[in-house]
């Protein structure tokens, strides 16, 4: 897949393109699976409608892409999260059109068998959907990594109709039949990548900090923040966030990580601005400052 352009910044209201960022000895690429067209009034019921004015489509939809982040570091190939999987349907909170992650990986020259580790931020359908295909591991040679606190509640949980839970994947991850490794806060996944287990959005929601040999850092913060507006409005929750207190504590801790020098963030759901820094503007408000990245390919699903 040849690069299209160098050093561009997309639009926060657009579906995400396949974008890549290189810092020191590390290359990270957003492997886009597709898009979820959310109804913000349903998914963010506590957020004022005018927060979305510049982001929604003419039909009032908020385009939140899904996928995985490919991390190529020191001889290891890590995929953080695994998108939705093949799904084109309408759910209570919006329409889903996904299923391109494996094709995008192939176009990048990375077949599923080349992935060494799949590390999950949490076990929602848009982050763990490609974990298994037809009952077998989609990434056959990979260790699957998930926080112990994230997996534990599913050990005794009964399957229900929660639309956010990919039950087929959860059942297999919790069943102990596959190469699943549980991690605690601060543990190393591979050299240069460690877990930051905060909880909040889910019981063991996990961010990952990727650190280069020269000390530059990337914080992959999963769904701790769904939208840049939450960086300055920490109490704005989604309909699937459990409670104000745990989410607030998680966000405050991650902001401390994002405030550190030489640190960039990665957001799965910030439209076509997945890479950025958290900065304070002239009025003292925290905002997302997008970082230019290589545009590798356009959004994979139209």
Q: What class, by secondary structure content?
A: alpha+beta
State the total count of DSSP E strands.
Answer: 20
The largest sheet, given as strand count, sense and whether it forms a barrel, is:
11 strands, mixed
- Low-pLDDT residue intervals, each spanning 5 or more residues: none
Radius of gyration: 18 Å
CATH topology: Metallo-beta-lactamase, Chain A
Oligomeric grouping of the chains = single chain
Q: Could you describe the 3D structure shown?
A:
This protein has 302 residues and is of the alpha+beta class. It has a single domain (5-297), classed as Metallo-beta-lactamase, Chain A (4-Layer Sandwich). It is 14% helix and 34% strand. The protein has 6 helices and 20 strands. The strands form 3 sheets. Strands 1, 2, 3, 4, 5, 6, 7, 8, 11, 12 and 20 form an 11-stranded mixed β-sheet that branches. β18 and β19 (286-290) form a beta hairpin. The chain is globular, with a radius of gyration of 18 Å. The two termini are 18 Å apart. The model has no long low-confidence stretch (mean pLDDT 93).
